[in-house]
Amino acid sequence: MGAAIAFHLAERGVEDVVIVERDTPGSGSTSKAAGGVRCQFSDEVNIALAAHGLEVLRNFETDFGVDIDLVSNGYLFLLDSEESAQAFSENVDLQQRMGLDSRMLTVAEVAELAPYVNTEGLVAGAFNPGDGHCTPEAVVSGYITAARERGVQVLKDCEVTGFETSAGPDREVTAVVTDHGTIACTQAVCAAGAWSGLIGDLAGVDLPVKPLRREIMVSEPVDFDTTGMPFTIDFTTSYYVHPEGPGLLFGCPDEVDDWSFNDKRDPNWLTTLAERIEARTPALIDVEAKRGWAGLYEMTPDHNALIGEAEELTGFFYACGFSGHGFLMGPAVGEVVADLMTGRTPFVDVTPMDKRRFITTGLRKELNVV
């Protein structure tokens, strides 16, 4: 997210752009993401951001010279209740009105598309053939390299410890304070993922973002063809699987949600995953685990992003709280935030994503969260 914003600021002629990274670029949640890219959302703004982001990723190798291993096998949501099917049907109607090739599937069509799925209990499916997955680290690398070529400075192993602001009731950003020194500026953007709430606290800005742990397992190579296998999600349980090189990538929530910055693997999680595999994709139960990791979602109260400029602090912008879909929206949000910071009109109105919605219009629920 931050790399994309910095790149687009430089593209717009902004000088003296600095990325401050506590570790290395992408080392937070991005490099630990499953890499899914999809347009199947329930919120019109999210659909627009995702569709634009996916278009950028389709052209990424041409535009940035980096192969991001994009696989466009589609996203398949498995639905086991009439309520979910009705909600997804309405979402698909919205997506189609916005020009996307989303569609509802019968249970028979699900079985034909995904023969490894146990269709018992399913009532429908939702599918978009243009969705898929790619390698998050490669995307970050592409943006960082391109940003540096345009004069962006990347400070690694550098932690933000505070902000300096002007005095008086109408505060403005004047500097970012780090453990390596102070950087004078009139604008700063918080794109710190699950840690954004902490950065907001340093600036006196309320960003309602909380961390939520998620785990992933990648299998050893499998002995069957996965070239046409879609990113498959059991919507009720949030269990998912997609091809990953010669193997498969699996994910699902912990048995009990861990709302902390703990990104260590839970030894009991593999048992939970095995139960999900056996219940919904029993044909995959014999795959062998190769490696795995845990990472952090950045959750907001309504599972929707926070994008805008803080009313408490002029010049403090934020792009965070994407609740599990930040990577796929990063390319589009990079453009949007750069436009906001330079006084331009973004390709989509993100005013509904302003954090003030929680005290004005109320929650803006995104329903299609995994």
Map the helices and strands:
Elements: H1 2-11, E1 18-20, E2 36-37, H2 44-58, H3 60-64, E3 75-79, H4 82-97, E4 103-105, H5 107-113, E5 124-128, E6 132-133, H6 136-149, E7 153-155, E8 160-165, E9 173-178, E10 181-184, E11 188-190, H7 196-203, E12 210-219, E13 231-234, E14 239-244, E15 247-252, H8 269-280, E16 289-299, E17 306-309, E18 316-320, H9 326-341
Parallel strand pairs: 1-7, 3-13, 11-18
Antiparallel strand pairs: 2-6, 3-5, 4-5, 8-9, 9-10, 12-15, 12-16, 13-14, 14-15, 17-18
Helix pairs in contact: 1-6, 1-9, 2-9
| Oligomeric state, counting identical vs distinct chains | single chain
Specify the overall morphology: globular
**N→C terminal distance:** 20 Å
Largest sheet, in brief, is: 8 strands, mixed
CATH architecture of the largest domain: 3-Layer(bba) Sandwich
The mean pLDDT is 96
- How do the strands line up in the largest sheet? 4-5-3-13-14-15-12-16
Quote the beta fraction.
15-25%
Which class of the largest domain in CATH terms?
Alpha Beta
Question: Given the structure, what is the number of helices?
Answer: 9
- The residue ranges in which pLDDT falls below 50 over 5 or more consecutive positions are none
Number of domain units? 2
SSE pattern: HEEHHEHEHEEHEEEEEHEEEEHEEEH
The CATH topology of the largest domain turns out to be FAD/NAD(P)-binding domain
The CATH superfamily label of the largest domain reads FAD/NAD(P)-binding domain
